[in-house]
Amino acid sequence: MKKSSLWLVSVMLIMSLFLAACSKETANEKPAEGDKPAGEVKEGGTVTFGYTQPFKGVLSYAYYEGEDDVNALQFMHEALIKTGDDLTPQPNLATWELSEDHMKLTFKLKEGVKWHDGEELTVEDMEYAWYLIADPTYEGARFANVAMIKGAQEYHDGTAETIEGIKVIDDYTIEVTVTEPSVNLLDNIWVYPEPKHYYGDISSKELPDSEQIRKNPIGVGPFKVKNIVAGEMIEFERFDDYWQGPAKLDGVVYKIIDGSLAQGLIQNGEVDVIEAPKDQWAAIKELPNVNAVEADAMSYSYIGFDWGHYDNEKGVVVSDNQKFQNKALRHAMAYAIDRQAFIDGFANGLGKPLNTPFPSVSWAKIDDSEINGYEYDVEKAKELLDEAGYKDVDGDGFVEDPEGKPFTVNFDAMAGAETSEARAQFIIQSWQAIGLNAKLNGGALKDFNLFYDTIEADDPSVETFMGAWGLAADPDPAGIWLSTDKWNMWRWYSEESDELIKKGVTFPEDESMDITEHRQQYYDEWQKLVNEELPIIFFEQRIDPWAINKRVQNVKVTPFGTDDFHLWAVTE
Amino acid sequence: MLQYTIRRLIGMIPIIFLISVVVFSLAKLMPGDALSGKIDPLNSDPAYIEEMREKMGLNDPIHVQYIRWMSGVVKGDFGDSFVHKREVMELVGDRLPNTIILGVSALLITYCLAFLMGRFSGRYAYSIGDYLISGFNYLALAIPSFVAALVAIYIFSINLGWVPATGSIGSGVEPGTFEYFISKAKHTILPALVLGSLATASYTQFLRNDMIESSRKDYVRTARAKGTKESTIYNKHILRNSIIPIVTLLGFDIASIFGGAIITETIFTYPGIGYLFVESVNARDYSVMMAIAMMLTVLTLIGNLIADLLYGLVDPRIRLS
Question: Which residues does residue A176 pair with via DSSP β-bridges, in sequence order?
Fold first, then answer.
């Protein structure tokens, strides 16, 4: 019987383990260790950079698609130009010169920049990258960044043997002729070289699946790839011939984790640097071993009104939906929402209300005093509705439209986060509070794919929807805001807006005038226009939360992620 | 028996065909495609999306797409993954070893636990220990695996720090060394334990009931009458007879070994088939998703066949015809 009682005990132990686990998870916490002041910076060491989505392993800038791969690429490769703190282009591997007529761009490459295999970087590698992307068989998404080079379109279509506009002058100088002058040429043109000598003659179509990109990728960055475990981890080691001098760290480990474990893994040091999941931020930023850094992001969310549909044949939006043509109605719906409360309640304060489509980090953002802030004001919202003729005629608690017909508003939002449902209800209730009969379209949230499918197809049930955009460093709103843009999701047609957007990318007639100032004046005007017309309710600009272990020093956080990898160091 | 096997194998063909239609239509019924996730002015533009849809044949009529896919599948070519930019078979092949290691270890844990618990329960049926064991089994059956996984990680990785919480291998280890093996084992043990110990219920109860039933049989009474020791009766006579039917369950486990554990793998960031499957569904990477679904279908069918054949082998009363 002795053996059996042992069994009984062990089984009970297993059970109690599960029961204990079910109760409360904070029983035995690790002793705080991060409180002591940061020690001396030491030589070497390894830092683990975490991310919550598996990477695909397409380790080339010309071919990668997602943030999951670019997070690894940033450690191993660099571009001719980088984005400075003021979001303007700055020289990196090369300096540039633009001809008087803005048609010729000349890059002058630094000498002595080495690839990880010891070969020197030359302008041929840049030329090669343009050829790869313009190749007729290229299946990546970057052709738009090469299309402005003269002759690239012809090469892409297969009607030309070479790209006419590229001229190699010597090993360190290359001249590019563009099809038309553009103020944001440097923001748009492709500037990541690819190792021509290393890829050999693999075709542009085969490259993404080649050993050279998947198993042994090389770059010119401060760290070189040592080991790749597919979908799970990439180990980098220091590259001693890095052009800015060898990095301080011995290596970096890029590690994929499950988002739900972020807090625990940051706490026990398995992950050193990570963009933290927003829903865990309140707990993570309190961890004793964490430097909590909040960085303004280049993105914003909005509530779009459905103005009409996209005419595929003519390639232009048609604002033929009468429902939201009344400006007072749109204003009222904006005043009805307490955006700050929404941000505090659902995003741990990680956001700021915004009133134009430019986040505050953008240089083109207009001064807040010049535009309407749409501060939360229920009374004002009701007043506006009343003046516009939206009155409760039949006494059901909801207003009717000016003709006395019932007025309802469908709202769409994406599912995904735990709080998605509550967020949507917040908006709906805010509108109900001013007397609008708002409801969730179809009674349920939509997943990402269904959401954009429905909106892009101009489904008649879509009336208002909450979406978001990530933005590039250059403020040019084309691509989303022109009336010819397919991603003008709200289908707002405005000739005035189109004209201002187009003027924003022109050169000043007066040569002596600063280009930025010149553009700023049109963007100010444009922001005033959209702020007043309010084709969409501008909702919030995001703040990215970064958790950085206190032992890691010199991590620079930018609106686009982290930077200055060669300066990172650890204390211990 | 050979005839039976061949007949069954031929019978599978229409089933596989029908399932391929279902898998394909379900995949296509999902809103969005691999390119809907590309709505991002930073990285692409509508012209590119349209061009790629045309290139990938996503604008073709549905039956054309099905025939194109199926004619590849028949030749063993599942196409390319749009998201991963690789051949699907290579991609699956990469993940398979991880999944098999995890699946086999989990299965071993299940078998060991179930054997020990089932033996105890069968011998001391209706005792407190028996009730505790069935209590544990039903609890394990009821606990969702993601809860168990998170709790296990919280206790063993984050608080006790015994094993790492994520991944299938540590950093800085050379493949082939002893260190590599240890690192692999350390990364596999926790997900395997979670997977294995939650799945014991059916095996335990199966063994228990069979032992109780066997203990009432005539040959057991005979053995008792002869004065054979109780432990010998249970360990030699009954256990041997009761373990045989359990062997047949092995057939059903084949699909689960290869199929991977979707939720557990995802939480442990363990790069196996299950993780790949979830990833592909989220990214609408049809080719990968359909390939895995088809693979599981075929394995399940084969597993069923093996189970049936094993039945015939261990129990001559069952005639396969």
Answer: A105, A166
Interface contact flag, B269 A470, Cβ < 8 Å: no
The C-alpha angle with vertex A265 and arms to A264 and A268, in degrees rounded to 5, equals 85
Q: How far is CA A476 from CA A147, A505, A542, in A?
A: 17, 7, 19
Beta bridge partners of A105: A98, A176
Q: Does A255 touch chain B if contact means CB atoms closer than 8 Å?
A: yes
- A11 token code pair: 């089984």
> Per-residue confidence of chain A (572 residues) as pLDDT tens digits?
344 444 545 544 444 444 444 333 333 333 333 344 456 788 889 999 999 988 989 999 999 988 899 999 999 999 999 998 888 899 999 999 999 888 999 999 999 999 999 999 999 999 999 999 999 989 888 898 999 999 999 999 999 999 999 999 999 999 999 998 888 899 999 999 999 999 988 999 889 889 999 999 999 999 999 999 888 899 999 999 999 999 999 999 999 998 888 998 999 888 999 999 888 898 999 999 999 999 999 999 999 999 999 998 888 999 999 999 999 999 999 999 999 999 998 888 899 999 999 999 899 999 999 999 999 999 999 999 999 999 988 888 899 988 888 999 999 999 877 788 999 999 999 999 999 999 999 888 988 888 888 888 899 999 999 999 988 888 999 889 999 988 899 999 999 999 999 999 888 887 788 888 999 999 999 999 999 999 999 999 999 999 999 999 999 999 888 999 999 999 97
**Both structure tokens of A291:** 């430097």
The amino acid present at B91, given as its one-letter code, is L
Which residue in B has a C-alpha nearest to residue A19's C-alpha?
B139
Q: What is the pTM of this model?
A: 0.83
Contact check, Cβ <8 Å, A232/B169 = yes
CB proximity B158 to A under 8 Å: yes
The partner residues of A317 in beta bridges, in order of sequence, read A310
Q: Which of B36, B84, B166 sits opposite A452 (nearest CB)?
A: B36
Q: Which residue has the tokens 């890691």?
A: A552
A209–chain B Cβ distance below 8 A for any pair:
yes
Output phi, psi for A490, to 5 deg. -90, -5
CB-based contact B158 A253, cutoff 8 Å: no
Which tokens go with B270?
């363990």
By Cβ distance, the residue of A17, A229, A267 closest to B158 is: A267
A341 touches B: beta carbon within 8 Å: no
